[in-house]
Specification:
- This protein is mainly alpha-helical and 195 residues long.
- It has two domains: 87 residues, RNA polymerase sigma factor, region 2, helix turn helix motif (Rna Polymerase Sigma Factor, Chain: A); 82 residues, Arc Repressor Mutant, subunit A, CATH 1.10.10.
- The protein is 69% helix and 0% strand.
- It has ten helices and no strands.
- Helix 2 packs across helix 3, helix 2 packs across helix 8 and helix 7 packs across helix 10.
- The termini are far apart.
């Protein structure tokens, strides 16, 4: 990337190339964003066969709707939003609950605004604790599992997660806080770990 190019300009050029049906442009878009798409869908549905099918569906939807992309957010966020939407609809069709906590909580309580002090990275330092933590993360409902891993493991900023999921930033923070507290509680009870 040269100094005159920015991610936004790269997004514009890639979208323009795909819309102009330039040879290889859509394949380049898929290569660039398939990891993100796979991560979001796999974290939501956890079934490799379903994930493959839903990733294909997501990129088909991206191809069909790319003309609607207005560059108001990064292309990564827009594609992530498509992937999240496809996975969420899949879970709804299968009547799989997406979250334990009500999604309409838009604000944090004063207690939620205080850091809980749980360090996910430090908890992963010990192999046994890391294995137990991974198992507990996998046991979470799809929304909490996806939000937690996007934020803590992929280091996606809350503002980008909000764009991908359509959830309010306060709702995401609340989910993260409560999920970390739940993981801490489960680790403490199963292993006596104090995190």
């Amino acid at each position: 990337m040269t100094d005159s190019q920015s991610p936004a300009n790269d997004d514009r050029a890639l979208v323009a190339a795909v819309l102009a049906r330039a040879p290889g442009a859509f394949e380049r878009l898929v290569r660039e964003y398939q990891g993100l798409c796979w991560h979001i869908i796999q974290r939501m549905v956890r079934q490799p066969d379903d994930t493959r099918e839903l990733c294909q569906e997501a990129f088909l939807r991206v191809h069909q709707c790319l003309h609607q992309y207005r560059h108001e957010s990064a292309l990564k966020s827009w594609i992530g939003q498509v992937a999240y939407s496809v996975a969420k609809r899949h879970l709804e069709r299968k009547r799989i609950p997406i979250a334990e906590v009500a999604d309409d909580e838009d604000a944090l309580s004063p207690l939620d605004q205080v850091s809980d002090g749980f360090d996910l990275e430090a908890a992963c330092a010990d192999a046994e604790v890391a294995a137990a933590l991974h198992a507990q993360i996998e046991a979470l409902p799809p929304l909490q599992r996806t939000l937690l891993t996007l934020y803590h493991l992929d280091e996606v900023p809350i503002v980008e997660i909000a764009r991908i999921t359509g959830l309010a930033e306060g709702t995401i923070k609340s989910h993260l806080f409560r999920t970390r507290a739940l993981l801490r509680e489960r680790l403490q009870s199963s292993m006596g770990v104090t995190a």
